[in-house]
Amino acid sequence: MRSVVVGAGLAGLAAALELRAAGVETVVVEAGGRIGGRVRTVRDRFVGGQHVESGAEWVDTDHHRVLARLRRYGGELEGPGQRFSALRRYLHLDGALLDPDEVRRVAPDLDDRLGELEDRLHRIADGIADPAAPERHPHAAHHDARSLADLASDLGLRGTAALFARRNSQGEFAAEPHDVSSLFAAQQRAQMRAAEGAVDAESMSGTSVAAHRVRGGLDLVARGMAAELDAAGGEALRLRSEVTAVAWGEGGAVVHVGDATGVHPLPADHVVLACSLVALRRVRFEPALPPPLAQAVAELGYGTVTKTALQFASRSWPSGHVNTDRPSQRVYEPTVDQPGEHGILMAYTGGAGGLDLAARAEDQRLALVLDDLRSIAPGLGEPTGGFSRAWSAHARFGGSYAVYRPGQVTAFWQVLRRPCGPLHLAGEHTATWTGYLEGALESGERAAAEIVGAGVSLGPVERPRH
To answer: Model confidence over 334-351: pLDDT tens digits?
Structure first.
């Protein structure tokens, strides 16, 4: 049996490793010149050995697949971790930086109002018996048709509470509140709640889940997986090889791959499509995908994060996350647990703001964010390094991670997670842990299990006619 995996992110690498371990001949084709997908650690823009993540950044203590990979490759979590429900809420508003006590004086009911929004989501989540099947909620269509903006409107959120609710949506989902299905947001709560319960049951400690960065950089995981794949021998990974067409049927598939030497057919019994759906929209399928799947591929939402990081010679800023009414949206220090006098500030800009930044050249983004940072921390000197990456501006990704828009959970959730003949979709957009590295690994393992479970070679299929 032979498989072709499209995409060398963590989902594709996980699928390939599982398939090879099961004795399935497997090759991974990747359109870009690097492995890792949306795992991308940046070192060369900074001095003093510091680094930051331009893509995925956090590993939670209930992300068992990622933690197992870290242990396998000699990695470890960095620092004491953060609990995002308990972040210090600095607010930069109208040019003034308010500390948590000042925020409470300006908006004494802020915690209560935001808590009401969370309570609404958790009450919806109560109806999700299985986070892998949110469409089975007894009122799925109703909740899926409504957005986070609708919930905020129901509660009458205004002023500071509305700003924080919007920043929370732009940060968690990389999308505006009106672009996030309330059923999808509730599914995320249901999944986290189930995972936290499993952690508590295992540890018997009752300790809540914390989010960590990876010491030395998250690309340690991607590099470890690629090295393990290479060690298996054979032609396991082809970089700069873009899929242009897939002919498929009951007999298997032929994947047409273009590289510097031309377009080449790769016959396969099974194909794992582990790339972003945005990239998949440029691939010609013969025959066309079934209408429900074709619609899901064409329409599923993607967040629009732009991450902009600037390094400074000294760390002259308060400790904690800052929400601001300026274009940067959210500012924090990703080097808080890294040594050295230097430090790096990161602006995490999602939703409409992420798109606005993506429309600008990198030097313009850096200048705009620097102006914001100097308003937040006036003592900043000249930057010693920096970068800005707009994930929505890169054709191979088209966004940061999936966000199910209103109506898309009931329409797309299961169709994206079922095999279509010899075609198997993988990637965080097909996982229970949607939007997380844990989900990428989960989806790759699931796709491989589907193929191994099939267990038989389906034979060749006719090549597409041009």
So the answer is: 999 999 999 999 999 999
